[in-house]
Write a structure and sequence with these properties.
By secondary structure, the chain is α/β, with parallel strands linked by helices. The protein folds into two domains: 227 residues, Type I PLP-dependent aspartate aminotransferase-like (Major domain) (Aspartate Aminotransferase, domain 2); 118 residues, Aspartate Aminotransferase, domain 1. The chain is built from twelve helices and twelve strands. The chain has a seven-stranded mixed beta sheet, sandwiched between helices. Strand 6 and strand 7 form a beta hairpin. The radius of gyration is 21 Å and the shape is globular. Bound molecules: pyridoxal-5'-phosphate (PLP). The site of pyridoxal-5'-phosphate has 14 residues, from helix 3 and helix 4. This is DegT/DnrJ/EryC1/StrS family aminotransferase. Keywords: Aminotransferase, Pyridoxal phosphate, Transferase. Its cofactor is pyridoxal 5'-phosphate. One of its GO terms (molecular function) is transaminase activity. Belongs to the DegT/DnrJ/EryC1 family.
């Protein structure tokens, strides 16, 4: 094949004729802003990914976190415990409520919050714990739920990377007071931009719906000070089509990961916790020495893209700049490398990735 050495991107959104037709259909109605298409997307999202409950569509995953926290009553004077090893939106959303994000270390195997590290930073100001299901692997919700119950804390889930992930058969986004999903183009499914809040709590759902729409349920009868964080019907149309595909794409991601697990040598492949369903938003290996040179060689010598998520822990970023040393977080930031695992990969692509990684690992050893 002529393109057998073509560049393999780290991520690739799949947009087809059905998405284009769905957008066209919305444009033809003239009803562009939040309306019936958004309502359908919400109920279908709940059916496919969170086993029902309330689903509130918003304009981004960050808005989903922010409004979820506000609706759960988080505000000035509160502390919320978050991982530092995540995208900055996690801690940003806490800070935007006026509360203080408190950073805790991760479990080295699964890169998610370590329940013992969380326990060690609980104070009398702690209002809740917000684990991230990083890379599509569920956080240790069994231990975190127990800890939250014992200490009278709320649990919030950053499920931005984990559509359909589960632990012990329970879907992420259903463990805590609320869950937040992102629909950004590189996530496991997209609506262009967008986010979803999932909750079983009627009051959190009601307040989140108010907050996304200027505090109004009834037009011009504003009940509180709110935002315009609505999703449009145009974005919902894209998302509804993607929702019919996401479980198939996840199965393909899992098959791609299984091939990499079975064939990679000389690097640390990502383990899966007992009872966990990993949806492989990222397939993240550890390169113990020389990760950055390894990544450069993957691109320059083998034409394969990859990603480092995340090179700077959040507690080291300028807006937070905390003095604590989070051992496993600092090590992971130096070692992690995410290889392509997306559902568009061909068998030839997978074999090229294996050959390239194994060759580089051997040369470095
Ligand atoms: C993508 C992401 C978000 C934010 O989602 P947006 O839709 O980009 O606002 C939050 N948390 C994590 C862990 C993410 O990966």
């Amino acid at each position: 094949m002529s393109d057998s050495n073509a560049f393999i991107p780290a991520a690739k959104p799949i947009i087809g004729d059905e998405e284009r037709a769905a957008v066209d259909a919305v444009l033809a109605t003239g009803m562009l802003a939040q309306g019936a298409e958004v309502a359908s997307f919400e109920s279908e999202f709940g059916e496919v990914l969170t086993d029902g409950g309330h689903v509130i569509a918003v304009n981004s995953g960050t808005s989903a976190l922010h409004l979820g926290l506000l609706a759960a009553g988080v505000g000035p004077g509160d502390e919320v415990i978050v991982p530092s090893f995540t995208f900055a939106a996690t801690a940003n959303s806490v800070a935007l409520t006026g509360a203080t994000p408190v950073f805790a270390d991760i479990e080295p195997d699964f890169f998610c919050l370590d329940p013992e590290a969380v326990a060690s930073v609980i104070t009398d100001k702690t209002k809740g714990i917000m684990p991230v299901h990083l890379y599509g692997h569920p956080a240790n919700m069994t231990a975190l739920t127990k800890l939250a119950d014992e200490r009278g804390l709320l649990l919030f889930e950053d499920a931005a990377q984990a559509h359909g992930a589960a632990l012990g058969g329970q879907k992420v986004g259903t463990f805590g007071a609320f869950g937040a999903f992102s629909l950004y183009p590189t996530k496991n499914m997209t609506s262009g931009e967008g986010g979803m809040i999932t909750t079983r709590d009627d009051e959190i759902a009601r307040v989140a719906r108010l907050l996304r729409n200027q505090g109004m349920e009834k037009q011009y009868a504003n009940e509180l000070v709110g935002f315009n964080n609505r999703m449009t019907n145009i974005h919902a149309a894209i998302g509804r089509v993607q929702l019919t595909r996401v479980l198939g794409w996840t199965a393909q991601r899992q098959a791609n990961a299984a091939f990499l697990d079975a064939n990679l040598e000389g690097v640390v492949t990502p383990p899966v916790a007992e009872g966990a369903e990993h949806v492989y938003h990222q397939y993240t290996i550890r390169v113990p020495e020389g990760r950055d040179a390894f990544q450069a060689a993957l691109k320059d010598e083998h034409n394969i893209g990859s990603g480092v998520y995340y090179p700077i822990p959040n507690h080291r970023l300028a807006p937070f700049a905390r003095p604590e040393h989070l051992e496993q977080t600092e090590i992971a930031a130096q070692q992690v490398l995410s290889l392509p695992v997306h559902p568009s990969l061909t068998q030839n692509d997978l074999e090229r990735i294996v050959t390239a990684v194994n060759t580089l690992a051997k040369a470095g050893a």
